[in-house]
Structure formats: C-alpha cells, structure tokens
Design brief:
Elements lengths: L5 H38 L15 E7 L8 E6 L4 E6 L9 E6 L5 E7 L8 E6 L4 E7 L7 E7 L5 E7 L8 E6 L4 E7 L1 H4 L4 E6 L7 E8 L3
Length: 225
C-alpha cells in the first residue's frame, strides 16, 4: 500500500475547496451583475418624463413625422375633445417649448391618423378618419413646412374607421391605404393611382374571405383627386 502524506492531501483538499468557493463567488457576481443590468434597463434607462403639452385631454392617437423638414420628428395628435388635429413642432432641444399648430378644426368623430407622403412630393401629408360622417379625409402639405394645407375628401362612405395603416401594397412606388370598417366588419384596401393622372387618386378594393383572397372593386368608395 503506497504511503499517503496526510498533510499534502489536506493541502490539496483545502486548495480545491478554495477554487470551488471562488468559482461560486464568480457565478454569484455574474448573476447579480446581470440582474442589476436588467433593473437598470427597466427602471433607469429613460429620463424623467418631459412635458410637451398640458392641454391635450382627449387625445385618441399620436403619430410622428417631420412635418416642417428640419430633420426632427414632430408630434401629430388627434384630439377628440377639441375636434382637432394638432401638430407639436419639435424644438430640437431639451426643455424647449413645443409650438402647437392646429391643422384640422371643428371635425367630430376624429379617431385615426396617418402621416405619409401620399403624393410623392417629399412633404408629409395627413390622412385622418371621421367616424361621425364615415369619411376619410386628406390634408395635403402645400409648402412642405406645415404652414399651408389643402383639405380634400378621400371618401365619405368609408364607415366607422377605427384603424388605418399605409404601405406600397402593389409595389408601384405609391403609398396605399388599408383601413378597417367597424360597421361592415370589413378590411379594405385603397390603391393610390398617382401615376395615372399625376394627382393623388385613391380607389378602394374590399378583401372578402370567401373570394379566395382576391380583391373586388367597391364602387361606393371610389375617390379622390
């Protein structure tokens, strides 16, 4: 039987225990560091709320867009209490005053808004819904700075539109509209016909589940220039 040095064995055992304890300590440090980082992202990642406006009771929806072409995103607010759509101009610096510009007034039933370049002139236009008159309306940004607007009707028979979105659905380079009509229980698509006559012309198509995902023309929603 080989000779065993008890002192050497105890020394090795003590060393192994220290290594194990050190490894456990490192794991604990890593765990608490990760936990602290998670707490940081949840609790202290953002600054304290900076007030932009104190007169915005009744806001139904917000959108962001560079209305005046200064490279800073502005805030477009749909206010159902005031029956208005207001643009809050980004002052481009912290704690500065956001100037309020009212674009749409005296329109009841305001609910949903889109901010997009509908006519490909590099200006941000505004499309909004009026659930009281069942309309979708377009406000065209004439001067590119949000100081001059031209209002026109896209359709007056859209229904109770509670949600809209926009994208180039048919890849023709023009932004189209998709909307949900809560009255008829339908989702419909409005194609932008800008290239046909060089004016913003939206014609509507309704997608029906029984038509195998084909689009059928809805003659009651044909508009607009």
């Amino acid at each position: 039987m080989p000779y065993i040095n008890n002192k050497l064995l105890k020394r090795h055992s003590s060393h192994n225990i220290r290594v194990i304890l050190l490894f456990i300590s490192l794991l604990a440090i890593i765990f608490f560091t990760i936990k602290s980082l998670n707490n940081l992202s949840a609790g202290t990642l953002f600054s304290y709320p900076e007030t932009i406006a104190n007169d915005s009771y009744g806001i139904q929806e917000l959108s962001l867009a560079d209305i005046n072409k200064d490279t800073y995103l502005d805030i477009i607010a749909v206010n159902s209490n005031a029956n208005s759509i207001d643009v809050y101009i980004n002052p481009s610096s912290t704690n500065a005053i956001w100037t309020k510009k009212t674009v749409v007034t005296s329109t009841q039933g305001l609910l949903s808004v889109l901010t997009l370049d509908i006519d490909n002139d590099s200006d941000i236009d505004i499309i909004y819904t009026d659930t009281t008159s069942f309309a979708i309306n377009l406000n065209t940004n004439l001067d590119g700075s949000g100081n001059s607007w031209q209002s026109s009707s896209v359709t007056s028979t859209a229904g109770a539109i509670k949600s809209m979105c926009s994208c180039d659905l048919n890849k023709d380079g023009n932004i189209d509209i998709v909307a949900a009509d809560d009255i008829r229980g339908r989702i419909f698509y409005m194609q932008n016909k800008l290239n046909v006559n060089n004016s913003c012309n939206l014609s509507a198509y309704m997608k029906t589940p029984k038509a195998h995902h084909r689009y059928h023309a809805v003659t009651s929603i044909m508009m607009v220039t």
